[in-house]
Design a protein that fits this description.
- The chain is α+β, with helices and mostly antiparallel strands and 80 residues long.
- Helices cover 42% and strands 20% of the residues.
- It has a single domain, classed as Glutaredoxin.
- The protein is built from three helices and four strands.
- It has a four-stranded mixed β-sheet, with helices on both faces.
- The longest helix has 13 residues.
- The model has no long low-confidence stretch (mean pLDDT 97).
- It comes from Phytohabitans aurantiacus.
- InterPro entries: GlrX_actino, Glutaredoxin, Grx-like_ET, Thioredoxin-like_sf, Thioredoxin_CS.
């Protein structure tokens, strides 16, 4: 399952969540404004920036502000 780091006000996050739902991709959402550990993780993979959406994959890799195509491609790569 994917973890999407997000904020309540992020339009890009809302769009990607809708795309996950449409594609049947399982995910959990963590609001970095409510979870300081999550905010620290996002900063650790984004050069100190709290850039969302940041998506963490089951293998521990992450993509920042990915398209649904990039997410699907990455999922295909890690399930081979």
């Amino acid at each position: 399952m994917l973890t999407m780091y997000s904020t309540a006000w992020c339009g890009y996050c809302h769009r990607l969540k809708s795309q996950f739902d449409r594609e049947g991709i399982g995910y959990v959402v963590v609001d970095i404004e409510q979870d300081l550990t999550a905010a620290e993780y996002v900063m650790s993979v984004n050069g100190g920036n709290q850039t969302v959406p940041t998506v963490r994959f089951p293998d521990g890799t992450a993509l920042t502000n990915p398209s649904i195509t990039q997410v699907k491609d990455r999922l295909t790569q890690i399930t081979r």
